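Below sits the subject:

***
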Amino acid sequence: MPTGPHPSPAPVARPRRGSRTERLAPFALVAPTVLIVVALRLWPLALGVNFSFTGDGDLNGTPVGLDNYATLLGDPLFRTALGNVGLLVLLLPVAVAIPGLLATAIHLRVPGHRVYRAVYFFPAVLSPVIVGAIFTLLLGYDGPLNDLLGVVGLGPVDWLGDPDVAIFAVVGVHVWATFGMALVVFLAGFSTLDPSLLDAARVDGASLPQTLRHVIVPGLARTIQFVFATTMIGMLTSMFGLLFVMTGGGPEASTYLPEYYIWVQQGQLDRPALASAASTALFLVMLLVGLAQVGVLRRAGREG
């Protein structure tokens, strides 16, 4: 065979670097959102933190260091509020599991799933004041729920007057009123789940608990993390309306939460600096709890 000089390889075209305008375009697009977040969120947060180190009353505007935080730690009401935060953390898996299981049933198309989708979301559009007023009547000592318990032979329960029961009653009402949003998020997560995995589990004869554990939960790991975080934030920052209408922080301050404590200090006792310190403490609690939840869920996902 004749041989000849091999042709030199064609030069590889280097990708053309974008112009300066193209490189800056993404930053220009996100700049308005960043400015809004800084102006309406981060800057007021920084002002609140700074204000928490000043005094109230005659010491208004005077730096007092950590005195407000020492006052918080010495206040039994604030310690009760923090204890109730711990209770909310323990109840959080239940608050997440309820919409998760309902979303699973709807996704698996149980009979009437379209009706259930609308019915479950309906409470989410109601005002907390309206929900609180309705359940104050239902859970009253002489209310319909205790009448129903009497019919089946169970004694009446002082749902809103017993310090050991009231916080559970209010949290239960909050979960009922708000889990519709988490249900929507779970349904959106199901739309990203590979249906072939469910089909394979069904063909292999996997039971529903096995399908939940080995297919649905790993497939919705990021959705579950998001719902955990948003549900916890909602519990810590969106229960004021229910507390105000249903218990007023009672009985015996057993239903105090940090946001209700903040309102009392600011709105009733005119102690804005102490309220700012409590707000800062609430922010730190939410941050630590959120980071801990994400860490635990990620570790569980890797082990799964």
